[in-house]
Hints:
By secondary structure, the chain is an all-beta fold. The protein has one domain.
Amino acid sequence: MTDNQNCGQCGKKCWFSQACCGGSCVNVMHDPKNCGGCNKRCKKGFLPVRDV
């Protein structure tokens, strides 16, 4: 369930800056629990890149 074009169901597309993590689209640019990728926690005191 990591297909960005079919995330969790056929035809459910994730937006730019999102990744399909376990069937849900997550914003890996703003989510400290998915820091740049699925299930990658940001180090303490760090946040994902917000201004790209």
